[in-house]
């Protein structure tokens, strides 16, 4: 196995990964990275670890895996309304497979270029395959989309469609070329989530105060908003946005009524769930939906818990890490 510094230089110290953001004053090659934080802005950061066999199949394509690993971290910045600047990578590898490393670094570069985020440093070591990425972003001082910003009467909205990635879980070990068009769409939704950076920034600029990214399932993540804000919610199950691909796949499997179940609890969507006062939503609707379709699915209320429009309670459970 090449030495750590040789591995980093060969696969990760490359244009397209390291030169995307001017705020990184010093990146790969020293004991620490240095970031310039402009006056009036604050640094925010988030970290996630993905483990082979737990968060992704051991046989997952390296390029797709890298795209997913960076994208799901960027989704946390989107949920705060932050502008991405850089990320660090800690990579545990059973062996230094040159083909795998080339694919992985290529996938990272593809996403880094799109979101203008630089790889600023990290660590590599021998061990079971795991990927830890920490992302950093910038926010205006004392302004962020937060989980504790929901107000009574606010509309609850979600971006995109829900349940697609969860429906793809049974497809991940199959050859992509053997999947039909709907299944390929679901497969791509799992491996290539789209962090809603532009939506988060637009919400923040327009006066939004509350958002979360949907990683563990809508009910679980909405539950975090409700807990932190000290409120409850009513959710309209008929309003949940589900793709035609999801509905087609469930019909093929003989489970046509499971769309709402996957939308509520499936997880891995990496869409945004956010709340807005109705007048603000009406004034921002065209701007936000020009970025990505956004759908009102309910409303914040004072009574604790989550109810359907018919008064039935919904349990705020989703993916459990332990």
Task: Give the secondary structure arrangement, pairings included.
Blueprint: H1 4-11, E1 24-26, E2 34-35, E3 41-51, H2 62-80, E4 83-93, H3 98-115, E5 118-126, E6 130-140, E7 155-159, H4 164-168, H5 181-191, H6 197-205, E8 210-213, H7 218-229, E9 232-235, H8 244-252, H9 259-265, E10 272-276, H10 278-291, E11 294-301, E12 306-308, E13 313-314
Parallel strand pairs: 4-5, 9-12
Antiparallel strand pairs: 1-2, 3-6, 4-6, 7-10, 7-11, 8-10, 9-11, 12-13
Features:
four-stranded mixed sheet, alpha+beta, disordered C terminus, seven-stranded mixed sheet, 13 strands, 35% helix, Phosphoribosyl-aminoimidazole Synthetase, Chain A, domain 2, globular, 60s Ribosomal Protein L30, Chain: A
Protein model, in words:
The protein contains 10 helices and 13 strands. With 322 residues, it is α+β, with helices and mostly antiparallel strands. A 7-stranded mixed beta sheet has the order 8-10-7-11-9-12-13, with helices on both faces. Strands 3-6-4-5 form a 4-stranded mixed beta sheet. A hairpin with a 4-residue loop joins strand 12 and strand 13 (313-314). Helix 2 (62-80) runs parallel beside helix 3 (98-115) and helix 5 crosses helix 8 (244-252). The longest helix is centred in the N-terminal third of the chain and has 19 residues, at 62-80. The model is unreliable at 318-322 (pLDDT under 50).
